[in-house]
Write a structure and sequence with these properties.
The chain has 364 residues and is of the alpha/beta class. It folds into two domains: 132 residues, no CATH class; 175 residues, Spore Coat Polysaccharide Biosynthesis Protein SpsA, Chain A (Alpha-Beta Complex), CATH 3.90.550. Strands 3-2-1-4-8-6-9 form a seven-stranded mixed β-sheet, sandwiched between helices. A three-stranded mixed β-sheet has the order 5-10-7. Strands 11-12 form a two-stranded antiparallel sheet. Helix 3 links the parallel strand 2 and strand 3.
């Protein structure tokens, strides 16, 4: 009985990856890489203890091909304990379109990042609000391509693509994990059921942002980007752009513990996702223990099913990476799959372990 349940769970996981490949081929939607209009835009960044990353982030924003007189960069220091504020203020003194602020009051319901973004949005003036993270580096066409996806449409929110970028196998494993997840979000969006956005790569029309009340009026959530998306999606259109010209590169988590803390926060927010995506994620979550049980009960079937699932995941990741002008190594994919088998089980145990969700040293 247990063996058949395990086979069923693994079979559903395999079928899910097969469907992802089919829908990718049939329904993928591409968008113009730039629009004819260039409105004033504001990029908002919340930074807390980001001395290692904030300089590179600001440099990448300044290097974009968007007109400097229409580009506002608003960065808020969220009570950093390192030299983040000093770096930010130095950039602000040198570049007139960079505005640096120390955030000292709370106007939201607890989420530190949302609190910073809310206050930066209140101070900025623009037609569109772009949001990214302090550990991100953006491509030169980021703003132009994101706006190109909404020209002559009623779209109110655009989601770009992000991948981890860094050296070492832990960074590479995170890169492959992000690639699979973001490509899956693209498939779900393109079949007409978008479910979330990405807080390190998104743009929202200011009029719509203000209509939903801004971050300061959203319910508390450890995933503030998802909460904003849910409010926007009620009455407005959204699109997901999957392209190299909107590909933001994120710094990786540096240790297994940091990765566990990050995943616990994401998993907490994951239960707020719509049933379409939550169902897919639960299938993937149950797949790992199911395939381990199957390998123990019937090694031949267990290993065979595991290899089939891995190969389908590799194919899906490879065709997704090609859209981003990236590559996926067969060997790296295999190593990442072995790591994922162990890490997924540890992640579940860590999530269930009593304790708060942490972000940037704060517990929620």
């Amino acid at each position: 009985m247990i063996e058949w349940i395990a086979i069923l769970l693994v079979g559903v996981a395999i079928l899910t990856d097969l469907m992802l490949i089919v829908f990718w081929r049939v329904n993928f939607k591409a968008y113009p890489q730039e629009g004819s209009e260039m409105p004033v835009i504001a990029v908002l960044i919340a930074a807390r203890d980001e001395e290692a990353n904030i300089g590179a982030c600001l440099d990448s924003l300044l290097a974009m091909d968007y007109p400097r007189d229409k580009l506002q960069i608003w960065v808020g220091d969220d009570a950093s304990t390192d030299t983040t504020w000093q770096i930010m203020s130095t950039y602000a003194a040198k570049y007139s379109n960079i505005n640096a602020h120390q955030i000292t009051k709370n106007i939201t319901l607890g989420n530190g990042k949302a609190n910073v973004l809310a206050q930066l949005a209140q101070q900025s003036t623009s037609d569109w609000v772009f949001i990214t993270d302090a550990d991100i580096q953006v491509p030169s066409q980021w703003v132009s391509a994101m706006l190109g996806a909404v020209e002559n449409t009623e779209v109110a929110l655009v989601t770009g693509t992000s991948l981890v970028d860094g050296s070492g196998y832990l960074a590479q494993i995170q890169r492959l994990d992000w690639l699979y997840a973001t490509a899956m979000l693209k498939v779900i969006s393109d079949i007409g059921t978008p479910v979330t956005t990405m807080g390190n790569n998104m743009a929202i029309k200011r009029s719509v942002y203000e209509a939903v009340g801004g971050f300061e009026n959203l319910p508390f959530s450890v995933t503030e980007d998802l909460e904003l998306f849910k409010q926007v999606k009620k009455n407005h259109q959204t699109v997901n752009v999957f392209s190299a010209v909107v590909l933001n590169k994120s710094a990786p988590q540096q240790s297994i513990l940091e990765l566990l803390v990050q995943r616990k926060r994401w998993m907490r927010g994951g239960f707020e996702l719509p049933i379409q995506l939550l169902g897919v994620l639960l299938v993937q979550a149950f797949y790992m223990p199911a395939v381990i049980i199957l390998i123990l009960l019937n090694p031949f079937f267990g290993v065979g099913f595991w290899l089939a699932k891995w190969l389908l995941k590799f194919v899906f990741s490879s065709i997704s990476a090609k859209k981003l002008k990236e590559k996926v190594s067969l060997f790296d994919s295999f190593v990442a799959e072995l790591f994922t088998m162990a890490f997924s089980l540890v992640s579940v145990l860590y999530y269930l372990w009593p304790g708060k969700v942490y972000w940037k040293g704060r517990g929620y």
